[in-house]
Design goal:
Blueprint lengths: L12 H14 L2 H4 L8 H15 L3 H19 L3 H8 L4 H15 L1 H13 L5 H19 L22 H25 L6 H16 L6 E12 L13 H14 L4 E4 L8 H7 L3 H8 L6 E10 L3 E9 L5 E4 L15 H5 L18 E3 L2 E7 L6 H4 L12 E6 L9 H16 L3 E5 L5 E3 L5 E4 L6 E11 L3 H9 L2 H12 L25 H8 L8 H7 L4 H6 L1
Parallel strand pairs: 1-2, 2-3, 7-8, 8-9
Antiparallel strand pairs: 1-12, 3-4, 4-5, 6-7, 9-10, 10-11
């Protein structure tokens, strides 16, 4: 019998790691240029390459490749954090660059563990596709939840203009990412097998085609309209708290708030950047005049302003001005280092010049702001990253929001891709809940997004102006909103664990399990035969199989 052919030699680890990093960084384009035809295929292709290499790697090598892929992906996608820390925070350039690199590397540990587990547990069968999707889902959930989470660049956001977007109101952004990962694994398996294993890939592509053909479905219904005016202040971050520029900023905000004839006027996060006692000292009568203007009952406003004081604590808030009783929304999900100080890192935040950098946290499930029959649910800055937290407001369909309003200040990150990335995050939230999202921002993107995630109108970023339009509120609850309101991300975690359990490595069906012979067996144990049985499930082209088949006596055993 002819012994199996030894596989081609593995490429040098350094070269393969560099290629993994390059492809990880490349896919960042799909999170920015989502509207370019075919851009959504880029993450699919780079992920398929990663799976192909993991299929041939030892667990240790797989962990390194996945870590390089993930670190470069995040580094290319959130490099703009350097601007906030160096240009506006005052950190030395080298320290700011090192901090961004450390963050990207730390967040990629989850993906590295997923890569190692996949290499360890895969069985060389169609179930490997489900295993990779489950491990990818676990890694993204961990990144989005642990240590308050940082789900920016979750894989599903690259699909906001792709066929997979039809799944958003069903399974949310994490589910979309898992489907993307499973499809990539299926394609990798099909190509690596030279077309002998097209079954999983065909099934995955059929699901995507069906989603594109059927669409997301209409789970909500129209619930009236409201006219809006959205202010874009365009204040540079280094001028926001400057005594030289502050009077002009306050004057413009006050003038536009009172001049707008829309039913709802919204000014961005910290449009008024002073605590109440500071505002009264700097501009006496400013806030009482705004309150009096909107007390006549014809119009209402949402204004980003910090509330509280240094003694009792302060919050990053939205104040509602109308004829009704006062409304206040306090930001719940705070940004580490920028809005609260993690334990043990005060030395780091002290080095940065961040005014109002230690906010108190708001309540988990705040009420909506009612205006003209619409229940408007504010969220501040990157709170719209956390769909599972917004979903808590949908537990009672009768009081669920009809409109989302995001108030942001992305000026911290300059004129970078952060603006369009955040816009696409808001678009996906609109898709998940089938609710319009209006965005009032400092430097962009100030926009009106409908319940299908389509941008209806938008101001040019980094310009001062007011965007006006009409917004159609929506009633009803999507499947995603229903289950996420009741169970958060637990269903996603359960699906991920079930996918991993399907590998059943501890029952002898996975790569890492050794079925040791019974000690009662007659005769001595033949270590070489035992090793051949242990690794008999390895594909012939696996590097570990190559190593074993290269040992004297094992080639014949494997052939038998």
């Amino acid at each position: 019998m002819t012994p199996p052919r030894r596989p081609a030699r593995q490429p040098p680890l350094a070269a393969e790691a560099a290629l993994a990093a390059a492809l990880g960084a490349l896919q960042t384009l799909a999170f920015v240029h989502t509207g370019v035809p075919g851009a959504w295929l880029l993450p699919l292709a780079t992920l398929a390459w990663l799976v192909w290499r993991l299929d041939l790697a030892t667990p240790r090598r797989a962990a390194l490749l996945a870590a390089c892929y993930g670190t470069a992906w995040l580094l290319a996608g959130v490099w703009w954090l350097y601007i906030s820390m160096h240009r506006y925070g005052g950190l030395p350039a080298w320290m700011a660059a090192l901090a961004v690199l450390a963050l990207a590397a730390a967040l990629s540990i989850y993906l590295a563990l997923a890569g190692a587990a996949y290499a360890r547990w895969r069985r060389g069968s169609a179930s490997d596709c489900a295993l990779f999707a489950a491990l990818w889902l676990l890694a993204e959930l961990a990144r989005g939840v642990i240590f308050t989470g940082f789900p920016w660049l979750a894989a599903g956001y690259s699909q906001v203009d792709a066929p997979l977007a039809a799944l958003a109101p069903w399974i949310g952004v994490y589910g979309m990412g898992a489907v993307l990962a499973g499809t990539a694994a299926a394609l990798a398996q099909a190509v690596a097998s030279r077309g002998r294993r097209w079954g999983p890939a065909t099934a995955a592509l059929a699901v995507i085609a069906l989603a594109a053909a059927v669409g997301p479905g209409e789970h909500t219904r129209p619930a009236g309209e409201v006219s809006v005016a959205l202010l874009q202040t365009n204040v540079k971050q280094n001028e926001k708290f400057s005594s030289e520029h502050l009077p002009e900023t306050l004057a413009w905000v006050g003038r536009e708030l009172t001049a707008a004839d829309a039913e709802l006027v919204i000014a961005p996060e910290t449009a008024v950047p002073l605590l109440p006692f500071q505002l009264e000292e700097s501009a006496p009568g400013y806030w009482p005049a705004l309150r009096a203007h909107f007390a006549d009952g014809n119009r209402a406003a949402l204004v980003g302003v910090p509330l509280g004081d240094y003694e009792r604590g302060y919050t990053n808030s939205v104040a509602g001005l109308s004829a009704a009783a006062g409304y206040r929304y306090d930001k719940y999900h705070l940004v580490p280092f920028g809005e609260f100080i993690p334990t043990g890192f005060r030395w780091f935040t002290t080095m940065m010049n961040i005014p109002l950098g230690d906010f108190a946290r708001g309540v988990v499930d705040p009420p909506s702001f009612t205006v003209r029959g619409q229940r408007v649910a504010p969220n501040i800055c990157y709170e719209d990253l956390y769909g599972e937290e917004l979903a808590r407001r949908f537990a009672d369909a009768a009081s669920a929001p009809t409109v989302f309003a995001n108030l942001s200040n992305i000026g911290w990150f300059g004129d970078t891709i952060a603006t369009v990335q955040h816009l696409n995050i808001s678009r996906l939230r609109a898709l998940e809940f089938q609710r319009p999202m209006v965005r009032a921002t400092n430097t962009g993107a100030t926009a009106i997004i409908d319940h299908r995630g389509v941008v209806q109108a938008m101001l040019p970023p980094h310009s001062r102006g007011v965007l006006t339009g009409r917004v159609q509120g929506r009633d009803g609850v999507t499947p995603y909103a229903w289950w996420a309101a009741r169970a958060g991300l637990w269903p996603m975690l359960g699906l991920a664990l079930l996918g991993c359990l399907a590998a059943r490595p501890w029952l002898g069906t996975g790569r890492g399990v050794v079925s040791r012979p019974s000690s009662r067996a007659a005769g001595p144990v033949n270590s070489r035969a035992f090793a051949s049985r242990r690794h008999a499930h390895l594909p012939a082209d696996h590097p570990q199989a190559a190593e074993l088949l290269g040992r004297p006596g094992l080639r014949a055993a494997a052939a038998v």
